[in-house]
Specification:
Number of helices: 4
Radius of gyration: 17 Å
CATH architecture: 3-Layer(aba) Sandwich
Strand order of the largest sheet: 2-1-3-4-15-14-11-8-9
Oligomer: single chain
CATH topology: Rossmann fold
CATH class: Alpha Beta
Distance between the termini: 18 Å
Strand content: 25-35%
Length: about 250
């Protein structure tokens, strides 16, 4: 088998990136043909010229316009990007709540979505979207998780894979009112040029020191969906998809 070069970007704010990075690297290491470039941010875009796949677990990272365009060009040219959790998030903290500025349109149009808000963490039910026929969700039974439930706006053609339901208030966010009882996507495919993005929102994690300087010490360890075997199954499938081993 030929060598597979993967680029893992794992960094940002408000999450336990050490934990997420280690877990993703362990999954990538299950394939002896994979070699991984690990980055804290998107500055190593030159690696896209040789990368078979891109995997990102970030929060509130703001790639430059040149970096956004390099990522966009990579997907348009046929690349696959497995984007996790907060990759589509940008935050501004203001007196009226947490804002999600539309400051990175190239990035969000490539990803197919932008995070806007989430309600307080509480258990919710995830199920395969009606009509979804893709190996990523094959034989996935409905499951319950206690994770961040992402409320997003979408760009371009979106093919739903996993979803949940929510209507109500996302307390603490500027765009807090979500009264319409419509499906909230947990995973989707976004065809983009000759390539594609697979976005999967689950996987929140936070440790004691991850809210500094806002809080000196966070009062609890949060592992969310990382405590569920189905989460690891979906991550393995997403990685296989990114490598071109899952249609």
């Amino acid at each position: 088998m030929p060598r597979i070069d993967a680029w893992l970007i794992c960094g940002g704010r408000w999450h336990d990136f050490d934990f997420a990075r280690l877990e993703l690297l362990k999954l990538l290491a299950e394939d002896q043909d994979v070699r991984v470039r690990v980055s804290w941010d998107f500055r190593d875009v030159e690696f896209l010229s040789t990368a078979r796949c891109v995997i990102s677990y970030t929060c509130d990272l703001r790639p430059s316009q040149a970096e956004q365009e390099a990522l966009s060009d990579y997907v348009r040219a046929g690349g696959r990007w497995f984007a996790l959790h907060g990759t589509n998030s940008v935050f501004e903290f203001k007196p009226d709540g947490v804002h999600s500025p539309r400051a990175l349109p190239t990035l969000m149009q490539t990803l197919g979505s932008q995070f806007i808000a989430h309600p307080p963490i509480a258990p919710y039910r995830v199920q395969v979207s009606p009509g979804a026929d893709h190996p990523f969700v094959h034989d996935i039974a409905p499951f319950e998780t206690a994770d961040e439930l992402y409320l997003c706006e979408y760009h371009g053609e979106i093919r739903p894979l996993l979803e949940t339901r929510f209507s109500g208030e996302a307390r603490g966010f500027a765009e807090s009112s979500w009264p319409d009882d419509t499906p909230r996507l947990v995973a989707y495919l976004h065809p983009y040029g000759a390539g594609e993005v697979l976005y999967y929102t689950l996987g929140h994690c936070r440790g004691r020191w991850d809210m500094q300087p806002m809080l000196e010490e966070y009062p609890r360890i949060e592992r969310g969906s990382w405590e569920l075997p189905v989460h690891y199954m979906l991550l393995r499938r997403g990685i296989a998809w990114a490598k071109g081993q899952l249609a």
